[in-house]
Amino acid sequence: MDRKTLLKSERGVIRKDWRGKIPVALVYPNHYSLGMSNLGFQTVYELLNRFDDVVCERVFLPSDVDTKPRSSGDRLVRSMESQRPLSDFEVIAFSISFENDYPNILTILESAGIHRWSSKREEGSPLIVAGGVAAFLNPEPIAPFVDCFVIGEAETVLASFFQVYRESSDKPDFLERVTRELQSVYVPALYEVAYNDDGTISSFRPKKKGVPHKIQRSVVTDLSSWDTRTTILTPYTEFASAYLVEIGRGCSHGCRFCAAGYIYRPPRLRSSEALKESLAIGTEMADRIGLVGAAVSDLPEIGSICEVALDRGVRISFSSLRADSISKEVVEVLKKSRDKTATLAPDAGSERLRRVINKGITEEDILDATDLLVSHGIPNIKLYFMVGLPTERHDDVKEIVDLCKRVKHRFLKTSRGKKRIGNITVSLNCFVPKPHTPFQWVPFEETRSLKEKIRLVKDGLKKVANVRVHADIPKWAYIQALLSRGDRRIAGLLEMVHQNKGNWAQSLKAFPLNPDFFVRRERRFDEILPWDFIDHGIKKSFLIKEYKRALQGKTAPICQPGQCKVCGVC
User: Which domains does the chain have, with CATH numbers?
Assistant: First the structure.
């Protein structure tokens, strides 16, 4: 779809005169529909445009239609608002949510005529900045392509970042100053990495005095003082024209596989008053509002909060529901919103494995939630599972099949009274060990084994009526694991993938390092991990203790902000 059509469909676009302003290109390294579905991307766009002397415009990965230049000198990558080429901007800020988008960063830079490697860029070239969830998990695989990273939540750091930018004489001066003045900004060129003979990291240290050894993530203590909601509405997103509102960050349940649950600690919810205000604004903008958060059903007073929208005929949808906290109040909101599908995430099939991952829900919780949803007119259920979790055995995978059949039995029993039978959709995803979690030391499972487990589930459910199975592709999960767990040397692989036009198989074969070193190897507790220089406030000793408890099948209590000192973040 061309830019003109997309722009005509949008409401809320911010247009500013460029004269006397710092032009910033906010780049989502994927296509328009995915970028405009990302609430973090939209929030940063609005935050940057609040500054009087900044003009921020959006840039996305060009679609196939856009890849043919209109003239020999025409650049392929242009901003949405003014259609200026990317090279016209002083600052190019990448908002990165997914590691698998890393290759697109190189594609965008080359298409804009900007050298991919930061060390080889000409004087006066744009400042390349990166942020987003992927960046504050582990920025090292793309560190050689980026001038600086903003590590953490943007709200509290952007004003200081641009103040340093205004006061700096040039890019080198800015990078020197910003790394000393802002603890949450990481400048890769000011750090050196050394390696042991076995390929592990022997040291990660600053090159100059005054450069901090650790990067402290920025964090918003009072979410209610900031708005995190849709800025631009468009029908061409993953959620159509839904107006998105963030209810909180982090999660108190402490699932050991969940990166968001750890890097966003302590968990924070917006106040009821702030949410009601956001929903009231949303009702003026759209006929559907999506509440976004790690565990929306944990939100207190959810019924009264949603009333402001429901009373005006606006539908409410939730990004996630926990089986043990689905109340009649929650289901009533779904029913009034005419929602036909709810998503539950058992994550593992067996009780044993749910204890290992500290999921905190039982089979009865899942079956009772099924009863409650179907009996209140929600006919379709999605069930989210993972394969390849630590300590997983054949019986645990078989339990996914058995649990789905028990859900189907309860589903049918309750549906008969409603005289309508819906569908159960099973989503199977490969577990990828993430940095800053208790499972950061575990290896990614072999793709052959993951394929066998997926086949086992598919075969076990293929004859069950009204049950559909959608599965992850293990080879792409392998790539995600490589990009999640790699160090700076992975930049060389990304360069090869770019030169080979996205051919990962060819690039992996030619790469001088065995990629299994980063993916399939169990890390040692005394090893320097590529992301150890980022301080999220959580003690490494706590993560080690949680990993050991997982192997013993022991659960941990929920996170209660300010009431304990166990993990260190409070």
Answer: 3-216 (no CATH), 242-485+537-551 (3.80.30.20)
